[in-house]
Amino acid sequence: MVRRSHRVVDVAEQAGVSPATVDRVLHGRPGVSARAVRAVEAAVLELERQQTQVRLSRRTLLVDVVVDAPRRFRDAVTEATEEALASARPATARARFRLGEGATPAELARVVDGLGAAGRVSHGLVLKAPDDPVVAAAVQRAHQRGIPAVTLVTDVSGSGRVAYVGLDNAAAGATAAYLLARLARGRPGVVLAGLSHRAFLGEQERWAGFRERLAVEDPGRAVEEIADVHGDDAANEALVAQLVGRGVEVCGVYSMGGGNAGIARALAAAGRDPVPFVGHDLDADNLALLRDGTLTAVLHHDLRADLRAALTQLLRAHRLLPGAPTDAPSAPQVVTPWNIPPRLRGERDAPVRTS
Fold it and tell me: What CATH number does residue 176 fall under?
């Protein structure tokens, strides 16, 4: 029960009992009251906590954040990471960012392989990347070099990462299907599903959860998919314009990967009435679209909580916090124009119109 670094006299002083009592408790000898046993056990736990605090206060962790995503999401991750670092106490943590969009798996693998190289220290990796064997192998090599990885928002299978943090993507897809099946009830047409890129496991999980739930909630409802344009507004606008140009009637939209302003512009240019529209993430673009009624709802998860969880798992991986690293998926929160989180509210708290 007691670490070797805990002296009997220290435990006795902390517990307010005699060293002889502590010795009897440690060795399971009789003649000790239940109250004394509890006091000794509580003293040990408190000494453990204090020792952990001392170890943490002497360490500085350098965490590499590698993100492949559109700028709006990269900016959100940067802000959330910086806030999480400030709350990483009593440890001191710093971050080094590698942010971009559209990198190949080989390019991302080279970035991961460079962590900790040439004398550059790295104590951990927070990674948003495609689910690709080349990336997974690089993450495994980093782990072998003593650099644990936590995947963010989208997982990398077979990578040996120590934890996943971020949205429960399957639950998010099912939630979107549940909402759209009711919001689009009685409307003719297809549901439009937009994916940023099929290479991301998180979007695959959203897509699978959406299809499976929609088949139950609205049997026979057709779905049209647009994908692999990395959430770019102009590219999404062009794809949707082609779709409606063929006479396809859209009764609702589930956008898993962004580009929502482009999707909305294409529908409006075709003279379509506003349709139920569910998106992901409360970034600046989506906040504006939610406030003006273009988006009916946003499936939100708090990136600040995700990054705090990521740092916690890395501290656990280094045995600077008790417990083993573990996955920390977050449930999707359905945000409408009327329940935007207080910290994100601006002067315009209500939408101009709703759909």
Answer: 3.40.50.2300
Instruction: Return the residue matching tokens 């979007």.
Output: 203
Residue among 274, 206, 273, 198 nearest 231 (CA): 198
Which residues 6+ apart lie within 8 Å of 238 measured at CB? 262, 266
- Which tokens hold the place of 312? 């916690």
- 24: domain CATH number is 1.10.260
Whether residue 353 lies inside any domain: the answer is no
Q: Is there a domain that residue 349 lies in?
A: no
Q: Where are the alpha helices (DSSP H) in the chain?
A: 8-15, 19-26, 34-57, 71-86, 105-113, 133-144, 169-183, 201-217, 233-245, 260-269, 284-291, 303-317
**What are the C-alpha distances in Å from 115 to residues 102, 133, 166?**
20, 18, 23
CA–CA distance, 328 with 182 (Å, rounded to integer): 30
Residue 346: the pLDDT is 62
pLDDT band at 16 (very low <50, low <70, confident <90, very high): confident
C-beta separation of 19 from 32 below 8 A: no
